[in-house]
Amino acid sequence: MRRAKLGKIFIFQVWVVLTLCGAAAFAAPPDTLPDGGSGNVKAVMDGDSLRLDGIGVDVRMLAIQAPKLPKGRKGFKAWPEGAGAQAALTALVKDHKVTLRLGTTPRDRNGRILAHVVRDDGLWLQEELLREGWVRVYTFPDNRQFAPELLKVEQEARAAHRGIWADPIYAVRSPDPETLTKDIGTFQIVEGRVTNTAKVKGRVYLNFGEDFRTDFTTTIPPDVLPMFTKAKINPLSLKDKTIRVHGYVRSYNGPVIDISHPEQIEILP
Questions:
Q1: What are phi and psi of 48, to 5 degrees?
Q2: Helix or strand or coil: residue 205?
Q3: pTM
Q4: Domain layout of the chain by residue ranges
């Protein structure tokens, strides 16, 4: 009987270890993406951009957004925790070479290389910065690989209040229009229940209140809907669902976030 009890304890301990290991490795490094070159890091400009030796242009790390720093821009006010994010990336690349893994669009409009960055020991820097809580998931229609995996890492860091998530300024917003009006022009995460859905002239509206003229709304343009169809998501079926929306808040009949790809919306239990 004692032996059986010890066996159960051992099985439980193994289960705990496997569970914790699984929680610590949500995503795998993006080794399948095209190789964009390797080198030592010459400079870290902020928490999501760096410069390599031998490469004449800067690298903007894909799928994440760190708090922004002035970087020489006159009158630009640093975002809270920007220095912490820069320090975190600096510590991660110290004494290491890195390899660039290119996204679908390899350069942005400023000529910077857009890439996932993997350290010489296999550490995926985007995932690690998210795990430490120094960045948010930030994707585009043409560069959204691994978004679901990265969102899981972000959620775990946010629940643990790591990095920027200890600062209320980065807290997930409710769909309250009075609160969101103060966030116009900024990137936010808004979580709430969809009270109604509608499709007008090909555009889908997800409403979070009874008055669409003043309450928070999420819009999905007609040219984006095929992406939802491919992802097997019917946005009109989200009525009464609780969702988390990632994007920039603008003002039009109340606060609005426009959706350009399905990964901006997390459908919650």
A1: -140, 15
A2: strand
A3: 0.87
A4: 35-166, 172-267
